């Protein structure tokens, strides 16, 4: 796990059951990225940086996971953490034609709301916008199997719009 240099003290990370903080950066076109825009889908929110090799490896696997599940059921939001906003377009171009939702958190505010202290840092969010699982670090042999199991558990649950009224 790698830490970013000279960051502000983040708040405590949201825990399973907590509502996920909504604002998670800006797209390459300057539009805000919000968790609420993907309500009804399972969300994998991951914080990464270009200098973090495990982060880049994880992004490749997360894109495959999103492709497999379908973007209408699962959305991966990859937040570029604490890198200059001016570098973000080049970083997006380096990733190629990614299907992931990419956002920039150059000022670290989104990371602060999520209590990010090191990367990779992941939050798996259910269809109702609540944090279901969290992960710190990445182990290619162990992490992806656990992540797939957690995502599949959430995907198997009945979507909010199909639940019977209370």
UniProtKB/TrEMBL annotation:
Main location: other
Any GO BP annotation: cytochrome complex assembly
Key word Disulfide bond present: yes
Classification of source organism: Bacteria, Pseudomonadati, Pseudomonadota, Gammaproteobacteria, Nevskiales
Protein name as annotated: TlpA family protein disulfide reductase
GO function terms (MF aspect): disulfide oxidoreductase activity
Keywords: Cytochrome c-type biogenesis, Disulfide bond, Redox-active center
Thioredoxin domain segment(s): 14-156
Top-level division of the source organism's lineage: Bacteria
InterPro entries in UniProt: Redoxin, Thioredoxin-like_sf, Thioredoxin_CS, Thioredoxin_domain, Thioredoxin_ResA/DsbE_sf
A GO CC term assigned to this protein in UniProt: cell envelope
Alphabetized PANTHER family for the sequence: THIOL:DISULFIDE INTERCHANGE PROTEIN DSBE
Localisation per UniProt entry: Cell envelope
């Amino acid at each position: 796990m790698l830490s970013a240099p000279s960051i502000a003290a983040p708040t405590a990370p949201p825990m399973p059951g907590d509502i996920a903080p909504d604002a998670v950066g800006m797209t390459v076109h300057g539009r805000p990225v919000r968790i609420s825009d993907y309500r009804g889908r399972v969300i994998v929110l991951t914080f990464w940086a270009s200098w973090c090799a495990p982060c880049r490896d994880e992004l490749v696997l997360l894109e495959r996971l999103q492709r497999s599940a379908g973007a209408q059921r699962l959305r991966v939001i990859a937040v570029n953490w604490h890198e200059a906003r001016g570098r973000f377009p080049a970083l997006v171009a380096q990733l190629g034609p990614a299907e992931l939702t990419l956002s920039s958190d150059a000022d670290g505010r989104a990371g602060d709301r999520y209590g990010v202290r090191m990367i990779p840092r992941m939050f798996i969010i259910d269809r109702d916008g609540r944090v279901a699982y969290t992960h710190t670090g990445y182990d290619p042999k162990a992490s992806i199997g656990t992540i797939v199991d957690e995502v599949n558990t959430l995907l198997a649950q009945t979507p909010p719009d199909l639940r019977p009224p209370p």
